[in-house]
Amino acid sequence: MTRTRDVRAADRGEPALVEVLVYSDDSATRSDVVSAVGARAAGDLPAISWSEAATHAAVVELAESGRFAALVLDGEAAKAGGLGVCRQLKAEVYDCPPIVVLIGRPQDSWLAAWSGADAVVPLPIDPIEARQAVAQVIREGRT
């Protein structure tokens, strides 16, 4: 069934696969995001190919490549938190993909708005919230 859906997406000129980048200095957080969202954020969207970045320099370089449908950034990452990285990418990357930011405290929602995040997911990660947020930003990025 998935195969048929992917072929139909390709027939409509849509990609059968979208790339999503997850950034965190913590490999467990990256793994949690990938596990929570899974291989497809929603049934009406293409399958996801995940890429990971563990450093500020890597996430900036990968974001500049223009190949990602969405980015998921850990607001709690050490050295370069996802909120600051989000603000930088939104200001510096031409046609920046939509960004989901993971936040550790509800009070950080205002920082996420300041950073230009397109969606926010609280930590610890709830799979339903994470999947919905990633699906939302992929859909918005496709229009």
Provide structural commentary.
The chain is of the alpha/beta class and 143 residues long. The protein has a single domain (17-142), classed as Rossmann fold, CATH 3.40.50. The chain contains six helices and five strands, in the order αβαβαβαβαβα. The protein has a five-stranded parallel beta sheet, with helices on both faces. Helix 5 links the parallel strand 4 and strand 5 (119-122). Helix 2 (27-37) packs across helix 6 (127-142) and helix 4 packs parallel to helix 5. The longest helix is centred in the last third of the chain and has 16 residues, at 127-142. The two termini are 25 Å apart. 38% of the residues are buried.
**CATH fold description:** Rossmann fold
Helical stretch tally: 6
Helical content band: 40-55%
Second rung of CATH, namely the architecture? 3-Layer(aba) Sandwich
**Rg:** 14 Å
Key terms:
143 residues; alpha/beta; Rossmann fold; five-stranded parallel β-sheet; 45% helix; 20% strand; globular; disordered N terminus
Ordered list of secondary-structure elements with their pairings:
Elements: H1 2-11, E1 17-23, H2 27-37, E2 47-53, H3 56-64, E3 70-74, H4 82-92, E4 99-103, H5 109-115, E5 119-122, H6 127-142
Parallel strand pairs: 1-2, 1-3, 3-4, 4-5
Helix pairs in contact: 2-6, 4-5
Concise description?
The chain is α/β, with parallel strands linked by helices and 143 residues long. The protein has helices at residues 2-11, 27-37, 56-64, 82-92, 109-115, 127-142, and strands at 17-23, 47-53, 70-74, 99-103, 119-122.
